[in-house]
Amino acid sequence: MKLSGVSKYVSPVRYWYRFLSLVNKTILHHFDMLTAPAYETQFKYPPIFFLGAPRSGTTLIYQVVTDRFDVAYLSNRHCQFFGAPALAERLFRPLNNKTCSDYTSYHGQTKGLSSPSECGEWWYRFFRREPAFVTLVDADEKKMGNFRRSLLALTEVAGKPVVFKNLYASLRLEAISKHIPEALFIVIKRNELDNSHSLLEGRMRTLGRYDQWWGVPPPNVEKLKLLEPAQQAVGQVRGMCNVIDKAMESGLIDSRRVLTLEYEKFCADVYSSVRELEKFFMTHGLTVSRRFTVPEKFPINRNIRIDKKLYSELQRIVNS
Asked: Where are the domains of the chain?
């Protein structure tokens, strides 16, 4: 919101958001911690985390999951009060006001107070902003305790499993697996060429250029930044997927607690994927009732939407 003729530096809206952010980081954060269950409390429902590379289709699938199933999630309303989302749920009950999604988003951002959100500011209460990749050694033990307790609080108030979609979670798996061993994971994978293409399209759309970094950075981001844009995009997809794959291969994440969905198969037959999700939930003791009817399928845009020479370079790298 911008007031006509008012400089952004003196706009009351600008200062209102700064004030609200300060309240969230101080007063509401402390309230959240004072009222949250003890760290040792067991989750009544296991938290569910989406993992994957940016532009892999996680937002669309997140919208379908939160539409089809009666689950909790961080909505845009909760994120206005990121210092205490459990309090926001208790006061405003945004989850009760949910309407069916229109399945549109802008780089992970959705419209409507009850719509699902990535809610980065809630995550930054517990994890550093940079570097984005966080090992167990890097994680602050006290903040990790607060992370679990805030999640416990939201789960208890909502009275249902909470689904989280913030792809930086893929870079925080060591801390998540230690402090939330009950967690379940939904991994989204997309055709590598299409995923890389979408990343470069996103760069041009948001930054107006292809040669500037955009999106979640894998651990080797500084090396990738030295490469050409096509190499960066493919490396970004592979780097994020490698982090997740290594976590499973090393036993950091129990593979039985992971469901992998392919974006293309999901779009071609949504109902089949919904049944996979139901089976996965039931395997882990979750009987989740259905909510809204969702589309049977989603179209996939196969048009080339970036510079054609750049797309040819992407093809060469992916196929080499």
From this structure: 12-192+255-297
Rg (CA), the chain: 20
- The DSSP line for 67-119 is HHB--EE-BHHHHHTTT-HHHHHHHH-GGGG--------BTTB--STTSB---
Read off φ and ψ for residue 33, nearest 5 degrees.
Answer: -75, -30
Q: Hey, is 244 helix, strand or coil?
A: helix
Task: Give the pLDDT band (50/70/90) at residue 90.
Answer: very high
Q: Could you identify the residue written with the tokens 């994971």?
A: 185
- What architecture (CATH level 2) is domain 12-192+255-297? 3-Layer(aba) Sandwich (3.40)
Nearest to 50 by CA among 29, 32, 74, 25: 74
Which amino acid type is present at position 29? H
Is 9 or 62 the better-scoring residue by pLDDT? 62
